[in-house]
Amino acid sequence: MREMVLLCLFLASIFLNNTGVTGQADDAGFVSIDCGLPGNSSYKDTSSTLTYSSDDPFIDTGTNHNISAAYITSILSPHYLNVRSFDNGTRNCYTIKSLVTGGKYLLRATFMYGNYDGLNKGVIFDLHVGVNYWKTVNISDPEEITISEVIFVAPVDYIQVCLVNTGLGTPFISSLDLRPMKKSLYPHVNSSQSLVLAHRLNAGPTDTTIIRYPDDPHDRMWKPWSNVPYWAEITTSQHIQNTQNDPFEAPSAVLQTAVTPVNATPANTSALKFFWLADPFDKDPDYLATFHFSELQTLTNGQKREFNITINDAMFSPKPYSPYPLYADAIYGRYKPFPGMRQYNVTLKASSNSTLSPILNAVEVFSVLPVSDIPTDSVDVSAINAIKSKYQIKRDWYGDPCAPKTYAWDGLNCSYAVSGSPRITDLSLASSGLTGEITNAFGNLKALQTLNLSHNNLAGSIPDVFSELPLLALLDLTGNKLSGSIPSGLLKKSNDGLLTLRVGDNADLCNDGTECNQTKKMSNSSKIAIAIIFLIIVVLIIAAASIFIISKFTGSTCVVETSIQLEYPQFTYRDLEQITDTFKQEIGRGGFGIVYIGRLVDGTQVAVKMQHRRSTQEVNNFIVEAQLLTKIHHRNLVSLIGYCNDENCLALVLEYMSEGSLQDHLKGKPGSSCLTWKERIRIALDSAKGLEYLHKGCNPRIIHQDIKPHNILLNERLEAKIADFGVSKAFSSNDDTHVSMKDPVGTYGYIDPEYYVKRKLSEKSDVYSFGVVLLQIITGQPAIIQGTGPESEPVNVSQWVRQRLSRGNIDSVVDARMQGDYDINSVWNAANVALECTEMSGVHRPTMADVIVRLQECIELEAAVGRNRNGVSRNGVNKKE
Ligand SMILES: *[C@@H]1O[C@H](CO)[C@@H](O)[C@H](O)[C@H]1NC(C)=O
Ligand SMILES: *[C@@H]1O[C@H](CO)[C@@H](O)[C@H](O)[C@H]1NC(C)=O
Ligand SMILES: *[C@@H]1O[C@H](CO)[C@@H](O)[C@H](O)[C@H]1NC(C)=O
Ligand SMILES: *[C@@H]1O[C@H](CO)[C@@H](O)[C@H](O)[C@H]1NC(C)=O
Ligand SMILES: *[C@@H]1O[C@H](CO)[C@@H](O)[C@H](O)[C@H]1NC(C)=O
Ligand SMILES: *[C@@H]1O[C@H](CO)[C@@H](O)[C@H](O)[C@H]1NC(C)=O
Ligand SMILES: *[C@@H]1O[C@H](CO)[C@@H](O)[C@H](O)[C@H]1NC(C)=O
Ligand SMILES: *[C@@H]1O[C@H](CO)[C@@H](O)[C@H](O)[C@H]1NC(C)=O
Ligand SMILES: *[C@@H]1O[C@H](CO)[C@@H](O)[C@H](O)[C@H]1NC(C)=O
Ligand SMILES: CC(=O)N[C@H]1CO[C@H](CO)[C@@H](O)[C@@H]1O
């Protein structure tokens, strides 16, 4: 698998056009950083004449150290005298700005340990260029200078150079250089592949200094390679020219020296042999080998220098090759070795006609590095960085937020498209000590689906920017100090069921837009404007009257108690008798007792749940439920109106749900209408939201433990609310996610099998039960379906659906009572979510937040089709994911 190119000289262009020769180059665009140098200092490096400055402006982590005096010598370049090291964090990154997007750059990092930490220990760490792996650096000798170089195309207008701690010691760095490159140089480098330098050697120099800028205008570092036994040096003082289209522009100073085998005679030309070894960390080597040549001797008539180049005995040059006198030329190509090959033997062997031995002026070997990861969308990156700096977030948030995936920032989730940049989809900054106002930068995270800012100290009003986030499905602002009203855009999305909005436990926040008056919505500038108008009024009209107006205006603050602080009315047995008209109409019955319908004095209908008072355990269960109900408030949870707890009665007075339970509707109880698909999916979404609130919106979080259609109640608008918290468990956030229990509780058919076996309870157990309910909503079947044959076993609805769907036919499982009036894609999506929820292992089940997002998609699919279903054939039949 070799790709071969012979650099041809275009003689005409050589003689007619010398402008391609880059004798002079300025150092415009060079960035030369001495890592570990104290802030604001810089110096001129005598060997390169370049100015090196402190790395302070490029990074805000790490600590500076001087190397140990034992390793300081008079010839040591000043970049190596100090280092910056990174004790903290997985990824520490330098950010160099003002690159040209799509421009080609050479980036070089150097490392000399010099026992800076006094530990005298080797270290191995990874380097990343942008979001892509670059190289693994292995440093064992304190005196050794390691140079890593990569040539790449900048995907965005900045580059991050990251040192990644892989657990094998503290990463450190001595210097960092960035050099812009002409596009025509190193044509193998493009946006999908970079070149990582393995070797760059200048053959045959008489002194041992590295050639770099200004001798090489591109400031590559050419290491000397001479004094090899069996090799003789050849040099010239004449300038070596580059052709106009030279893809390497090897500098004259490098090409002016070469090596050739010793003792070669016209009768006995011998071969030049050398080899390189694979980098032990390079798992899949793929090389670009470049051999630089120029004929330095003046050949007489009859003299000929011609040779073949082979690598591991395979022909590398396409044909026998002769170098051009005093012009730069190169033989280069890809070399993809056989698996396991670690040594690459290069042989330059004179052909039979040649009277002179082969020569070699310089060699470069690169690994070809595929560019596999793309940096996160740049608008997302600036937004999240603005958020990070606004709230001084102290997390391991360095480098690209999403890429590479393994190092994505903690607290956020990203979507990774096959092509295109990753986007930030979920951000959780719950309990992160955020203070101040909510920054508008959140509004620039346009792909955001969930945002959790709960339990911080955020103050001020809720900005309108959230309603501009098209995909936002969950916004949790619980437990802050927010004030003012909720922007109408947000309220609308929430009311339309597109957004789960949590704003509980914010003392000064109006829970509902209508309760807040204009004053609060006003921006500071309009307040000032109004204040000025009033001042004018003060001047113009009677002082007393105007004072009255101002005080009235500014005095109307929005004081809305959050329901948490409300006291619940306590009823007596006599009150309950009155409310229920002496327990006249029973609307439900269970192991706990009986539920009666009632009516408060103001006419509100209520459900009165009378508890048998039997055992201490039952009383305790009652108290658990009552206590939970006083703490949880969500439109999809049945709310508490009051209670009775005295020697005569134990009862809860609850919101009345006129349409009964989901179970009544699924069972087709007389008087219950058959639900349409649209109604069903809405009920599923409502229930999911209620459950999600229990899991994530409550502190302590709550596991319901008995999710089933009987406990999902419907009001007159068929809005679903979860009820019956008698066996629910609240866990303080310090507890482990899994909580050991003695006996599994719940209802047969809905109990999470994993919980049943392992007796370890988590939110995922509710997700399982919810999945069963969702399957019932789709199929209209009971949770346990009796076998049809005489011998057949009863099966769970999830097995029943799985079996049928494996034959690819969704229509065979959907509740026939819907008479085919549903969008097939919407049902497929819902069935897929339900099956994921009923996976045997909890870790494979989605969270309720995921379920909400997926169910919203189902609603959108149904809505899109519902608009023009009349007569239009259904699309996507038998679509299977
Ligand atoms: C660098 O210089 C700037 C202004 O000249 C100064 O504000 C800053 O504090 C200095 N930083 C350090 C680390 O000395
Ligand atoms: C590293 O982390 C520790 C503990 O969090 C902190 O005390 C120290 O200052 C950090 N060091 C640097 C260089 O940031
Ligand atoms: C390094 O050495 C210089 C003097 O040579 C001194 O000024 C500087 O403070 C030292 N830096 C550190 C981090 O020890
Ligand atoms: C790192 O380099 C040292 C010295 O060259 C070598 O002995 C060691 O095996 C290398 N480590 C790895 C993991 O390759
Ligand atoms: C980059 O170059 C390689 C071969 O040299 C080629 O296969 C690939 O398509 C190029 N990619 C782009 C984006 O041009
Ligand atoms: C050519 O030279 C090499 C090394 O200098 C020697 O080993 C070899 O025998 C010579 N061959 C002939 C044919 O003289
Ligand atoms: C390279 O040369 C060495 C001896 O110089 C030999 O042992 C090795 O097998 C050669 N490798 C290949 C792949 O030809
Ligand atoms: C050099 O390559 C040519 C063409 O591939 C071949 O004919 C010739 O034998 C080779 N010469 C040597 C010395 O290997
Ligand atoms: C050797 O040179 C002769 C005359 O210059 C030419 O005809 C012949 O093809 C050459 N042979 C090789 C192997 O290059
Ligand atoms: C809480 C409060 O003051 N509400 C008032 C807000 O303004 C409307 C009229 O615009 C009144 O009807 C509310 O009573």
Automatic annotation (TrEMBL):
Residues 581-859 form the Protein kinase domain. The chain crosses the membrane at residues 528-550. ATP binds at residue 609. It is found in: Cell membrane. This is non-specific serine/threonine protein kinase. InterPro entries: Kinase-like_dom_sf (IPR011009), Leu-rich_rpt (IPR001611), LRR_dom_sf (IPR032675), Malectin-like_Carb-bd_dom (IPR024788), Prot_kinase_dom (IPR000719), Protein_kinase_ATP_BS (IPR017441), Ser-Thr/Tyr_kinase_cat_dom (IPR001245), Ser/Thr_kinase_AS (IPR008271). It is an enzyme of class 2 (transferase). Keywords: ATP-binding, Kinase, Leucine-rich repeat, Membrane, Nucleotide-binding, Phosphoprotein, Receptor, Repeat, Serine/threonine-protein kinase, Signal, Transferase, Transmembrane, Transmembrane helix. It catalyses: L-threonyl-[protein] + ATP = O-phospho-L-threonyl-[protein] + ADP + H(+); L-seryl-[protein] + ATP = O-phospho-L-seryl-[protein] + ADP + H(+). GO terms for cellular component: plasma membrane. PROSITE patterns: LRR, PROTEIN_KINASE_ATP, PROTEIN_KINASE_DOM, PROTEIN_KINASE_ST. It comes from the Eukaryota. Residues 1-23 form the signal peptide. One of its GO terms (molecular function) is protein serine/threonine kinase activity. Its EC number is 2.7.11.1. The keyword Phosphoprotein applies. It is a single-pass membrane protein.
